[in-house]
Amino acid sequence: xxxxxxxxxxxxxxxxxxxxxxxxxxxxxxxxxxxxxxxxxxxxxxxxxxxxxxxxxxxxxxxxxxxxxxxxxxxxxxxxxxxxxxxxxxxxxxxxxxxxxxxxxxxxxxxxxxxxxxxxxxxxxxxxxxxxxxxxxxxxxxxxxxxxxxxxxxxxxxxxxxxxxxxxxxxxxxxxxxxxxxxxxxxxxxxxxxxxxxxxxxxxxxxxxxxxxxxxxxxxxxxxxxxxxxxxxxxx
Amino acid sequence: xxxxxxxxxxxxxxxxxxxxxxxxxxxxxxxxxxxxxxxxxxxxxxxxxxxxxxxxxxxxxxxxxxxxxxxxxxxxxxxxxxxxxxxxxxxxxxxxxxxxxxxxxxxxxxxxxxxxxxxxxxxxxxxxxxxxxxxxxxxxxxxxxxxxxxxxxxxxxxxxxxxxxxxxxxxxxxxxxxxxxxxxxxxxxxxxxxxxxxxxxxxxx
Lengths: 236, 205
Prior knowledge:
The complex is a heterodimer of chains A (236) and B (205). Chain A has a six-stranded antiparallel beta sheet with strand order 2-1-3-4-5-6. A two-stranded antiparallel ribbon of chain A has the order 7-8. A two-stranded parallel sheet of chain A has the order 9-10. In chain A, helix 1 (6-50) packs across helix 2. Chain A has one domain (41-234). Chain A is built from seven helices and ten strands. In chain A, 38% of the residues lie in helices and 23% in strands. Chain B is mainly alpha-helical and 205 residues long. Chains A and B meet through helix 1 of A and helix 4, helix 5 and helix 8 of B.
């Protein structure tokens, strides 16, 4: 058959597309269980990391069962509602009306103290960013935080997931007077927040990652404000 | 017919994909802020170039010339997606670090360039070696640039702090400009300049 002819070209491209599609579909289906498990384990690791418990993918599940004593869902008014908190998908919840949203809380018991882990989700520069922040029993002081992202630029916006960045959040407050004010990011070097006289709420933004840092600031404010009623009712 | 050794080593120097052919500039600006992603990117590109060269070279006598670019793209895209899926399933951490750049390997001009220039006219084994050589030539430049950028931009190498805290206390500040892409472009320019002035063969009349 003539290799340059139309018939050959059509048959060639059809066969190629089918073969490639089959190969890709096969790979994707074979690997899917591993990938889903990775995501589940990562979520557990993130929740644990926000209360300061470092785990490996291997021991995350056991540690999670040990430390997270309670998972529950609240609504916007702060009342507990029914449901499985671990499977609540924040991405879908954010699309609903505020009154219908489910807000999960993970309660951890570590070294005799209770911590409340709140999941976060927001926008970075290129795509979604998310994280978990753990609060102490006063529901005001941040005990720890972890952040992650889908596609922020490595070395710039992606730095929000480093230990250096998240450690700045420890000890910061989220309430200003009676409302959730959350944290604020400052540009201009390591001491910018201190120079601005804001040691209670201020953290240093990522150099070269201003939009990601601002997105993170907005994410914390929106998500934490949703829990305001619950925090006020249960504050100690 | 060039010897295997020549095919392997020429892209490192005389026909380096970045400094001589000036291909693959976009990704070399994006992933060179830190050393670690640069190394992983270099390895991934090397693997994809080698295997797509090999496959295209195997098929070279059957591909209708009118749709050869499409066939090349399909092969590259399929390989990259498989690599991405495998990374996600077995080395989740690394795949997260590289995030979008794995997908962007598809658009790397070096791979298409090698398929057009070499794989379509040579046997599979030399084509495979050519892919390794060009991937290595690309990775080498990435490593040089990222070493300099990570050192001056964040005071670290491979994530470990190299510049001691005492320097910062004395008022030393990391160079913020070097983290941004324009400085990477300038550094590539300087590397090309140095390379051309040292290698006589590359000097144009």
